[in-house]
Amino acid sequence: MDSIGSLGLQQQEEAPSCPQEGLPCPSNSSELVQECLQQFKVTGAQLRQIQTSLLDSMEQALKGQASPAPAVQMLPTYVGSIPHGTEQGDFVVLELGATGASLRVLWVTLMGIEGHKMEPRSQEFVIPQEVMLGPGQQLFDFAARCLSEFLDALPVGNQGLQLGFSFSFPCHQTGLDKSTLISWTKGFRCSGVEGQDVVQLLRDAIQRQGTYSIDVVAVVNDTVGTMMGCEPGVGPCEVGLVVDTGTNACYMEEARHVAVLDEDRGRVCISVEWGSFSDDGALGPVLTIFDRTLDHESLNLGAQRFEKMIGGLYLGELVRLVLAHLARCGVLFGGYTSPALLRQGGILLEHVAEMEDPSAGAARVHAILQDLGLNPRASDAEFVQHICAAVCTRAAQLCAAALAAVLSRLQHNREQKTLQIAVATGGRVFERHPRFLSILQETVRLLAPECDVSFIPSVDGGGQGVAMVTAVAARLAAHRCLLEETLAPFRLTREQLAAVQAQMREAMAKGLQGEASSLRMLPTYVRATPDGSERGDFLALDLGGTNFRVLLVRVATGGVQITSQVYSIPECVAQGSGQQLFDHIVDCIVDFQQQQGLSGQSLPLGFTFSFPCRQVGLDQGILLNWTKGFNASDCEGQDVVCLLREAIGRRQAVELNVVAIVNDTVGTMMSCGYEDPHCEVGLIVGTGTNACYMEELQNVASVAGDSGHMCINMEWGAFGDDGSLSMLSTCFDASVDQASINPGKQRFEKMISGMYLGEIVRHTLLHLTSLGVLFRGQQTQGLQTRDIFKTKFLSEIESDSLALRQVRAILEDLGLSLTSDDALMVLEVCQAVSQRAAQLCGAGVAAVVEKIRENRGLEELTVSVGVDGTLYKLHPHFSSLVAATVRELAPRCVVTFLQSEDGSGKGAALVTAVACRLAQMTCV
Ligand code: 0WK
Ligand code: BGC
Ligand code: BGC
Question: Which residue intervals make up region (Disordered) (predicted)?
């Protein structure tokens, strides 16, 4: 183990003077030795106290408690997933800090096949003392030189190399490759590094060295490398424990418990940094005068108190301080001391490990003490062995108490009565010290009896593990690139959205003039929004959305009362014959009338028919084409009011007075207009999507008259059917369109509405799976099933309150087994698809409100938009994204979005009521 210098202790020569301050010299030697040994005895109660207090500090730190500052730091490491075992490739690993005054460079080849392993090549470099205490740049330049020297010996040519940086000091990580040093420990004290991003410092040094192109992909704490280097097949190690020059542990914590992460999904590896644990209440009673002396003479006074009782850098020193004390008291070595005994760092871990090793025997102890310039008597050797054992036993017990705290935390997280867990161990105290592990195991069994712990020595000090993290980081980075590449076409720029807005304006103008346009701009013969004077009972039908509804709408002074009944339209009816469909509709009406005791009454009926109809009157609508999965025969080109009346006619004893047919956008506008007269736009974003608005009659070429207004059903679902949106269309949109029953049609709708978003996501997930980015490249039957990924899943997955496990549950129901990275990527795909939909919808609304503003030559327009549709109403972010896009693209319009409470059935009844009122006025 390291020389005195690297012990992190200040240089001091100790004068062979009287016994140490505060310690009486008792009468006989063994009593004094016993007295010293006693000091290192830690009781079960004290260990439990330390375990409990450390657990409290861990929980305080996880919660982000600032004051009092928790005794441990609990640093997130951005390592969220355990290796697949499929990681492969060649990686360079640079280890700095784990083993004190040396750094190690490794070349690790991961075979990517479980259990297949190539022995890493490595080289160790001793770090000169002045480099450990000098300027930071010097240290990183030293590291970069060692890297080159190591690579010079290997046939690497000028290939780009990926490097994993094992940096064993407390760091704030803000990414797998971004880490700021909090404070040096273990004898390092370079200037200009604390508070800096050590990855950048290494990158700069490698740059300055300029010999190899090395990409520093990941930085990890040595405990993480140890945990990740766990022999495959042993079952994932979820704790990494290092006792080398310093000591520390990491473990997999639930991300939702880590306040700083603000992530409620998956697990994340936390570096506990228990070396800084210093709760006086718990540690005070076990701290000896020797611990205080050691700390007092250390480079970092008062810091890393717990580490200074366990770390290999300090065990030798503690033994030395005890031996020096006992020698001065004349109890050992005949009261003779030697320069080595009085010199800090004179006794190293190796010495202690050997001297304590029962197999070493007294002869070996003698030899070591003689090497230290001492002339031991027979009894001295035995005493020295006891003292070594006492110091190391305490270290192992304290380490066990800390580990037991971590195990209790895991047990708490897993809500398991008994916890079965594998702990990866690393560090030369484990390798060199004969009994450290067994004492640790024994004490853990005492302190955490319900935990079944298997200790797995890490194969090569964590090098393999660091390469694993680097491979995972490289894989995640590569997957992230592929994910970004795949999602980039969904990320629309302001310019692209403004272009959609302008194109829509152009298509609107052409449509209104009756010129060729993908926007039909259909007059609806609704000339005014309700003025509140409407009265009466009306029947209303609402066909075309998720549900078919029959409604009784009572419009009275006190407002509007609605009684409604939802009926299903089976796919076979929606795609059967027209006669069958309209007979089914009449069946529902009759059923509703019977239920409401309206049989035989012929109430005025308003028919919300949410499909493109060329209206030639309020009660005449020629169906232009079906959309949204409807495809009943013999309807397109027909007047659907006639089809309904014929169906009524086929049904004996039913009389219905069909007064108006309205589109659901119109019904929604009217319904909201009843409350807010500014409501002059109707918007549907549900199964399908569409909008209507009040246009100046003079601008509607197909309708006579040039004063007043006419509500125009834009049928914007068909926008882009002329190819004008092809620059935005992705291959996934094309797949969805080709698989639809109306390929080439409703292109705008197929990028926005609920019937299609789930399918766009499914096709995108299939593509990412084929790239190996998702689900380990495993294509599942589930994911290949059409319409299996419902659009409502997007709303659920994107909801802020949903933890990752629920996202996982949705996907596992689809037969997908996935990692948290997968689930996070599925979330990003959903976000990209729904965001594009909302922005396109926003660009459409911006085009409409700007048209109204310009129609009226207003500087600024205040207008409300009545909205309905499941996607708009249920998706957690859709509505706010639409509003934000409208604010961006139509800054001179103050737009209020009114969510329709009663659906468009009420609107249809109001249109009917207006028609009846106007009809009465013309009769009078
Ligand atoms: C409810 C309206 C109905 C419209 C539907 C659209 O009453 O007219 O068609 O919203 O939303 P969807 O049910 O398709 O999600
Ligand atoms: C450092 C830890 C490291 C441990 C073991 C401690 O001094 O603060 O980051 O994991 O030593 O090397
Ligand atoms: C139809 C429109 C309807 C919209 C919303 C579209 O598929 O063509 O008429 O307004 O869906 O339901």
Answer: 1-26
